[in-house]
Amino acid sequence: MLNKTKDYITRNRLWPIVDVLIFVVITGGFHKLYWAFFSVGISQSGMNAVMEWLAATVYSVSAWVDVHIFGMDILLYPVNMIHFNANNTTIAINESCSGFKQMLQVLILFLLFPGPWKHKLWYIPAGMLAMFITNIIRVVILSAVMIHWPQQWDFIHLWILRPFYYVVIFGLWVLWVERFGGMRKFIRADH
């Protein structure tokens, strides 16, 4: 039965669809489990300290980029707040802005998705670093939005830059499937 299924999928060139389905199941399952996990109050554990550290790091690096690369006139306040002197507005980078969820999603996705472990050992940390850099880019863009188009903050924050994380995750996954993983390669290695 299993060989017939493999043959059918191969004959009809359905391996990309199988890969996408696995991606959707892992990603959807991750979201369900993540929010269930945090809804029972486990977020008060050591993960909260990691999220606070990540938020503080994103805050520091983003503020440095704002000032030293883009020349923004800002004030830094405790608890990860950036104040923009140009129009007297402020943004706060809290634990939900830390990128922790997206880093954890990359970790789980590539741990579970088929592919060689020798590449997972470097690709997973590289993917998590990509999420960190994506978050820095996101906060710097939001800084520019806060200065130039503060009335667009909610739209850009919620509908453009939050989904941008998932575009990057999808791009990392596509690169993984094309280069290292995917069910077709996994099944071939199984023989």
Short description:
The protein is built from seven helices and three strands, in the order αααβββαααα. The chain is mainly α and 191 residues long.
Explain what you see.
There is one protein chain. Helices cover 72% and strands 6% of the residues. The protein has 191 residues and is mainly α. It has seven helices and three strands; from the N terminus they run H-H-H-E-E-E-H-H-H-H. A three-stranded antiparallel beta sheet has the order 1-2-3. The longest helix is centred in the C-terminal third of the chain and has 32 residues, at 117-148. The chain has one domain (2-190). The mean pLDDT is 89. Helix 4 (100-112) packs antiparallel against helix 5.
Residue windows where pLDDT falls under 50 for at least 5 positions? none
Going across the major beta sheet, what is the strand order? Answer: 1-2-3
Largest sheet: 3 strands, antiparallel
Span of the ends, CA to CA: 16 Å
Total of DSSP H or I helical runs spanning 4+ residues: 7
Coarse shape: elongated
Total individual domains = 1
- How much of the sequence lies in strands comes to 5-15%
Structural class: mainly alpha
Q: What series of H and E elements makes up the topology?
A: HHHEEEHHHH
Mean pLDDT across every amino acid position: 89
Helix content: over 70%
Q: What's the Cα radius of gyration?
A: 20 Å
Number of strands: 3
